[in-house]
Design goal:
about 170 residues; about 75% helix
Length: about 170
């Protein structure tokens, strides 16, 4: 039942939103989130700015926690196939990922870091939330995640972020 809903959303995107312009930019947008690339870059940059050093350290802590919980534990525990593995008729714009689908690591790392930034400074947090959302949508657009993978990744990322911020505030 859930998978039917997931495919309905993915098929809607393929039929009604997919276009030549987005076909060109979505692979780049998804690349920004690959391996937490953009978030690692931002975190390292913040670590070198005294005012934002703790925020950068919190981001790295959140990314490492998400890697352990999401990519190492949950993906291998749930072992959910990706939509592009099930429906091979979609013209793929990126190479087909080899790891499991649930939860979305791109979304988890994006929302984890964006929420940490939001807790620290709304002026950089709000654009980060927008970027994390666009990266998450790119995963649907590119047919490599189900909507429920994205939802779970976002929720887990937010929980990790709040836990990290809370823990650092207690220390």
């Amino acid at each position: 039942m859930i998978q039917n809903f997931d495919f309905m959303v993915l098929d809607f995107i393929q039929s009604n939103i997919r276009n030549i312009f987005l076909d060109k930019i979505m692979p780049f947008i998804t690349y920004l989130g690959s391996g937490g690339l953009i978030w690692i870059f931002v975190a390292l940059l913040l670590i070198f700015i005294k005012k934002y050093r703790i925020c950068g350290i919190e981001m790295i802590t959140g990314l490492l926690t998400g890697l352990l919980i999401g990519n190492i534990i949950l993906k291998n525990l749930v072992m959910r196939e990706r939509p592009c593995w099930i429906n091979e008729s979609i013209d793929m714009l990126i190479s087909v990922p080899k790891d499991y689908s649930f939860p979305s690591g791109h979304t988890m790392s994006g929302f984890c870091c964006a929420v940490i930034l939001l807790c620290f400074d709304k002026r950089i947090g709000i654009p980060a939330i927008i970027l994390a959302s666009i990266i998450a949508f790119s995963r649907l657009y590119l047919y490599v995640h189900f909507p429920t993978d994205i939802l779970a990744g976002g929720i887990i990322g937010c929980i990790i972020a709040f836990f990290v911020v809370f823990s650092f505030n207690k220390i």
